[in-house]
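Case study.
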Amino acid sequence: MRLTEFVVPDAILPQLKADTKQSAIRQMVASLKDAGKIRPADEETIVSAILKREELGSTGIGRGVAVPHTKHPSADSIISTVALCHEGLDFESLDGEDVYILFLLISPPDRPGDHLRGLETITRHLKNDDFCSFLKQATTTAAVVDLLQEADESQS
Amino acid sequence: MSTTSLPSMSDPELIQRPVRLELAQGLHIRACSRVVALVGSFNGQIRIHNGSRSADASSMFDLMQLAALPGTDLIIEGQGVGAEAVIDSLERFLSQTAETTE
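After joint prediction, the assembly is written out as follows.
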C-alpha cells in the first residue's frame, strides 16, 4: 500500500494549532469534510468514534507520532489526513512524549486487512528517521505531499 | 501448544513457539501496545515472526509492521532468563479471541 493512495492532499494540515487531543482530532476530521471526503452529516459521529477509541488507549505510539483512527461505514475505502503540530501536543502518548506528526485514519468496517495495511504503511515510513525529521520540518501542504510521494517511490 | 528449544551458541537457550493469532481484530495498535506491555522490563529479547516478517516485541513500530490478521500463524521467539514466562503470557494474549471493539 502507498501513502498517496489514501492520504487526501486537500485535507493535509501542515501547521495545526491545537492545545488538546480533542481539538486536533476535530480539526483533522473537519478538514476531511471540507475536502469532500466525508459527509457533513457523518462528521460528528466520526469525531466521537475516534475520541471513544482514544479512551481505550492513546494512539500516540511514540517517536512524536499519533495515529488516531476509527472504522466507519461511510468510508468506501481507507482515507487519511496528515497534520503537523510544530509546537508539540500532549496526546497521552505511550512514551509520554509530545506528538508532532498525526495521521488520522478512517477505514471501512468490513475490511480489517486494509486497516492493518494502512497502519503498517504509515509506521513503516515513520520508522525512517529521515522521513520523520523532514516531515516534522514541513510547513506547507506541497512539502508534505512531496515527502509522501518520495516515501512511496523509495519503496518501489 | 508445544515449545521447541533449539541449540544455541550460548545459554540460555532460544525458545520458539508457534501460536495462531486469534484476536478478533488482528495485531492492531491496542494489541501491539499490550504486547509491548507484556514484554515490559524483560531483559532478554523476544521477537514475533509472521512469515518473512519479524518484529522486536518491545517495539510498537516493529510490531505494527507485522500487519497480522486473525488466523495468522505466528512464531514467538525468545531468549534470556524468564523468556518462557513472557512467551507464555504472549501466547495466552494472542490466542484469545475476546477483545473490546475498536
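Observations recorded in class. The radius of gyration of chain A is 14 Å. The mean pLDDT of chain A is 95. We will return to this complex in the next lecture.
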